[in-house]
Hints:
Low-confidence stretches: none
Distance between the termini: 17 Å
Radius of gyration: 13 Å
Number of domains: 1
Structural class: mainly beta
Helix content: under 10%
Mean pLDDT: 85
Strand order of the largest sheet: 1-2-3
Number of strands: 5
Largest sheet: 3 strands, antiparallel
Amino acid sequence: MGTFDQDIAIMHIAANGHVASLSMGETAFACSIGPAGISYNKSEGDGATPAGRWP
């Protein structure tokens, strides 16, 4: 099986809530994130979805 690289972006689209959009190229899907939004300083149990780039 081959491998490929593609960026996936998740954008928080609701000021208060779990609503977000997950985008891969020209395709987008509705998705949910943690009640504390997206955070670079993620701690266990804080209710946030981790932000970052992973291989």
